[in-house]
Amino acid sequence: MIVNVFFLSRTMLVAVGFACLFVISETVFETNCVAKGAEPDRFEFFESHIRPVLVERCYSCHNSSTDSSGGFALDARVPLLAGGDLGAVIVPGKPAESRLLAILRHEIDGLKMPKNSGKLDAETVNNFSQWILDGAPDPREKAPSANEIASVTSWEATLNARKKWWSFQPIRNPETPIISDGSASQHPIDCFVLEQLLAAKIQPATEADPHSLVRRTFFALLGIPPSPEEIHQWTKTLKDSKQFELLVDHLLARPEFGERWARHWMDWIRYADTHGSEGDPEIQGTSHYRDYLIRAMNADVPIDQLIREHIAGDLLKNPRLDPTGTINESAIGPAHWRMVFHGYAPTDALDEKVRFIDDQIAAFSKAFLGLTVSCARCHDHKFDPVSQRDYYAMFGILGSCRPGRTLIDAPDVLGRHREELRRKKPEIRTAVAGQWSRLMPDVGTRMNALVAAADTPTSLLHLFNVIGKDVDGGMSFEQALDRQQNAWRKDHENRLAFAGTTRSANWNFSQQEDVAEWFENGNATTPAHPSSVAGDFSVAAEGDGTIATIVPAGIYSNMVSNKHALRLTSPTIDLDENTKLWVQSIGDGGAAVRYVVQNFPRNGPNYSVTRLTREWKWQSFDLTYWSGDDIHIELATAPDAPLPTDDDARSWFGVRNVVLQKKDQPAPSEALEALDGLFEEISQSPPRSVEELNACFVRALLSAVTRWSEGKARDTDALLLDASVRQNILENRLSKMTEIEPLVQEYRKLESDVIVPTRVPGLDETIACDQALFERGDHKKPAAVVPRRFLEMIDATPYQTVGSGREKLAEDILRSDNPLTARVLSNRIWHHLFGRGIVATPDNLGRLGERPTHPELLDHLAHRLRSEGWSLKQFVRSVVISRTWKTDSFPSEVAKQIDPENRLLSHAFVRRLEAEAIRDSVLMVSGALNRTQFGPSVDGSTPRRSVYVRVARNSLDPFLRTFDFPEPFSATGRRDDTNVPAQSLVFLNDPRIAALSGQWAAAILADQSLATDEQRIEQMILSAIGRPPRSDEVTRFKELLASTRQAEQHRTEELLDLDARQTALQLIVKQIMDPLRQALESTTQQSVLDARDSAPTGIARWEFADNLQDSIGTAHGTAHAGARLNAKSLHTTGQGYVVTAPLGQSIREKTLEAWVQLDSLTQRGGGAITIQTPDGHEFDSIVFGEQVSGEWLAGSNFFARTKSFGGPVEADAMKGPVHLAVTYSADGTISGYRNGIAYGESYKASKPVEFIAGQAVVSFAIRHLPAGENKMLQGRISRAQVFDRALSAKEIGLLYKAGGGGVPDEDVFARLEEKDQQKVLQIRSDIANIEHKRASLRPLSATTDPSKPWSEIARVLFMFKEFIYLR
Amino acid sequence: MKDMPDMRARQDSVEKRSRFSRRELLKTCSTGFGAMALSAMMAEAARANASSTDLPAGAALRKTHHQPKAKHVIFLYMSGGVSHVDSFDPKPRLMTDHGKPMPVKIQRTMFNNNGNIMGSPFAFQPWGESGIPVSEMFPHVAKVVDELAVIRSMTSSVNEHAQANFLMHTGFPLMGYPSAGAWASYGLGSESSDLPGYVVLQSGAAVPPHGGVSLYSNGFLPGQHQGSIFKADAAEAVRNIRAADPADWQRRRLEFVESFDQSFLKALDKDPQIEAAIQNYETAFRMQTEVPQLCDLSDETEETKKRYGLDSSTPDKAAYARQCLLARRLVEKGVRFIELSCLTKNIGAGGAANPWDQHGALKEGHTAMAYQVDQPIAALIGDLRDRGLLDQTLIVWAGEFGRTPFSQGGDGRDHNPYGFSVWLAGGGVKGGTIHGATDDLGYYAVENICTVYDLWATVLHQLGVDHEELTYRYGGRDFRLTDVHGQPIRAILS
Fold it and tell me: CB distance B176–A344 less than 8 Å?
């Protein structure tokens, strides 16, 4: 037993062992310390174990100075013994008769003490029992005064007392103990560990054997097992410790290191790809954050830098770029703030905000401080020196940030060509204006051509159209014009009236001071160019247009390139009653406007998002519902909204005005603003005919062009020009503007080099707002405002920042007088290396956490971490080369007796591999692992490393969950390690395990270097469990091999027998049905032809009559490896196959159809028709006999969408072609059909995969690309077709008929006489029974596949405990 | 530490019974290592009184806190939110004031498409000796109404499905916390060695309510307590439960593996976690026959199947009936907590995850949904009673909130968390009771207002557990199913 004694003051002492630590104030102690020194021993137990509890947990209610609860004071000996209104609670010497203990144990209803602050832990209660047994010695003669009580029970006193807990003490650099034992390692870790071991008289275990050590080291550092070659290489020389260091250095340099350690870090910050709740929306771009961690771990980026980046990486003055200089790595860190759980459309938005900020505080404070700060949301922390004010100080920092998106390209990449392009624009404008001026005489002609079609009010020439009609209808020109003038005047008055409404807020973005109040994020605008003046314009990036837009004054995202990003947000607005929001805006490509209530980023009922249109429009929102809530307004290009609306690379918007006013105020109008110039002309020289009116228009247009050319355009000019361009009144075709073309081409060339920014989830800075403390955590009860700052136990100075203060927070987390961060991180790394932390509760170093087993060692490590530049790799290296880490896992007898929990680390812990390591091992050992790094998250059925598997809150990967993959809820420093039957069931029955076993078996047999069964067995054992077999083990495996072969033989015979019986029965059915069938077929020749007419047509069809052409589309086939056309079909013999050109359209829902004749019914795994990605990584296919011999199957990558249809085993396909079809519906239902009727049962799989136009190819006679073993079909394909939807059963029936398939069985059956029907039914039932028996023999079958017994070897190896446990 | 040898001995004996690793055992003791665990046990022993009953090995509590009235819980979850004013809480004023504007301020609603007061399209009448009014929606349940204690004053603190589902299941309105079933399994263990303590039944196209499978989560409790989903009518009721190989083949494989595992175990000095993991294969092997047998209803009489409605020509009703019958079979097997899932009729916004969510077409939707569950539920109550199991089985019928007394879009109702009805039956509940009340519009609970904490405190109480004493230390705090609230609703207990 180890004793940690912390000397805290000259008078006081503290706790022993694992007990809780309490401290009392010296004042109280000394005023009462009459007996001090007189009977020190007698009172020692009271002073160390009883008094601190009384002071902290009882004094505030039960004292002599105030009206004590229950008339019971316990701040001095006499009243304590006297008890309260209900009599004495202590009988000295007799714990059993002392009611106090029952009260503390909560055994008396209504008298559960301490009240409302949690039961005392059992050890403390036992101390009271012991103390009473000892006669309840108590030195306190005099009760403390009211002031003294107040001072010892105040928050300050509590804080000061709690700050003395071990983890809040400065990190010391303790001297390494000198171990006299000459043979011992001098590694500091070993010295610290040995010191305690020797004190306990325990000898450390010997060093683990080389095989265990190599395996342990691979998993600890890389998370994957060593290959047999690596095992050979490293175990040979491992006795030499220098060689072990070489191994460690080699592994630290491997790219898999980052994948392993990034995943640990992801546990700490509850990484997730979705927000959860209803809809479980994706948090787009999270995989960039995962890849950032992997890169950082591999590059050994200092941990303090990573933490800094996590908190405020987007704000760093000198961001860290990746080695190519193109990625702003630092900016990715804050993505974790966005991995919060979000509700769906909460009616109480503030409640939701409080929750998601609480989520942020909880995850972050546990991850980096090892503190449960979020326990202080409703009250001061019950155990740690964290006040409720601390919580709201931190809340203020995070609450001042808004969910956003961060561009992570390096600044110069984001700014590429921006200024140069901007500089080119005036030249283009001048040239275009010149051309327009010259072409102005043509405008009249163009107008005449356009007026007739201008019959909608949005058309610029609409009024000409109306006047024309009015005049034609007999109205005088003057009258007709007058009507239009009146309409314009009214519109003009409306505009003036709207401008004069009473508003609660109003921003006009032609005004710089209004622009300055909003927040612009993205690379479209710059501080120098936050907005545009009237007449600014954008150049068409492609096509025959020249000018894309000409705009009135406002804020625009597309003035240089519509690839640029912009998210524009308003200041925070406290909503009044009955408010309506008006936003005068324009946009395209998915750009949207919304109001954001309490920073909630999702859309839903009462959280509407409005996509902007290519026409200027006053978008309006009734905000009555949200009266009293805080909102802000947000306009964003599609990928830049916190939850993107779209991923259109070219998305843009512009905004002129934003108005908040009462609902009953006049609504805006804008319809005729573009014509202001025309009506000015009209009023100056009133036209007397349509021709003169046209001339007015041309003059107005020319004036606008002239002013634009001079840079003096007004808003109305810009609107007029923009509409004239779009409505073809002005020439805009580049091909017709030859003088301008070179300028525009030059512009376009540069613009095409502008990148589409990469976005990650992030935070927006605005103007900071301190948070009001919520009384008892109730967000409806705001109390005093708490300034933003760090934890008061470290520094209570308020932050004086304009923004949130995240940079300050990052500094404070890492400041040298905060001992928590380095301790927490050191302990986390240690935990992952050893399986248990020095503190066994890595997320909590506070008082409810475990105490450190080796406090000095932890300080040594934390000190080193800091002084060695926070290097993860250095840290890992120095730990794993210690002898302590290398010890064997077998405990000595002494250790078992004295230290059964192995707290002293005399030996290594036996550990189960984590979920990811198990999955990765299965994939790697079987040879299926795809080692591609980085990129978007994948489905669990993709054979990539588990770190890349999507973490969708509502549908976590079932395999990983089974092995305790954590829910992404809060920091998880220590995972569960459960033992549940579902784990065994995976290895017993999961078809993926079976498939991987088969894959492994095939690879072993294909390995030419393995000549004998012994060698193969040895190789497999080495791969799976990392050690060579003992000789008896090889023998046993050989026996298994032999018995498996024998059993298979036996079952093969059984199967053959069943087959024979089945064939005989089928023959009888045939004899009954065939005559009728033939009769029916002869009468249905015509209906076959009808069927041809009415059968559905696919998107691609191959007849294989005399070519490989697609007779519908352009997916023509090419033959490979000897596939040939023969007798109007494609014939392959197990080598050849056909691949087509890419499909011309994307398809998700689909149907695959093929007519197939087989050369053998025992062949396995060949595909008839397959649709797939070009590399074959994803595919859907009609496959024969892959999982069960003779069964048709909807094959897919890694069986992702594959389940057995359970249809009958194929018996006819050698005699002639059978018709096969598989349909894939939108909801994931997959149905199989054979000869026009359902084949087995449909089932539900994941949603159908989308195959992309121009990429996806179709192949025949091969399961999927690339070509190789076990995928080829032997037989003939005579016709095949692909449909872009799931056909109905009826349509499949038609296809079957149309293909000459004859009359379906069921039609024949329906026409049989009743007695024949009975007979057929009986035989069918017999056949079903045979099928059932067959099924029970699965997966064995009449096969000579030599890899089967080896697959069995693989199965048992996966089931070994040695496979999933590390020693 | 002088207590250590005793401690070891005690642990060993517990382990032998439970096949739990030492580490898990200590975890389940909830107080940590060493002497603390021992003293916790001593304290527990000291508290135990004559009426406490022993709990199976593996339970966090060794004995119940008091005499339990129920051993099992069946949670009939009406996902989407059943309208209380159309089912168990008749409001005549809605009829008289039908079409009039609400006389009180309307709180924010999910869809903000609020109409006027809407009378119930369903007629109510009193039933049974107790005369509890039940609407015509539930003609079968009405006939067993004397078994029901209807709480008309339930409330929720959230107004949207996912959070309300989380609140109803875990006491917290967000993911990450243990579900009530997980708490029951954790605290009381399972009485079946081959079946989990918390089973969630699904059939047909039923899916988890909004919030997903995390609603059945073990949260921070050990993983064996998470809800296991049984698909009542699927060929593979439980993931990977269908034996991929013949039994004798599997047996040979298991024996081979175990022989190796035993030498591994020996080489590791009988590490208890390895020992438990070896045992695990045996359990899994047995489950492969146990579970399919359980789900195979061929040994039930036609009469029983008919009683539940398995013969119904309405597929969703037959599917729900199957769940109900299976629930009874699971109770017989000793499963602690069973939750059932409704199937959608796709009426009025009620999708697969929220079948009762009739924002529109309330009459049609509620009629169809009630038809689905009514007869099966009544049959379940009757069947349990006939078999003498109702006394030890507590049935909880609840959705995540009620619906508004005013209309949405003319013929639907929006969510109403301010007052709604749930009912309990069996397991020591005083049948034929009405508890609490809403105002005369059915908008707010006004009398004996209940929370989800009270509901679960009551359920735990009936299971013999003091809800304040079933805690788990996680992240620096002792958590309970009832957070820091809740009191058993004693008025509905017999």
Answer: no
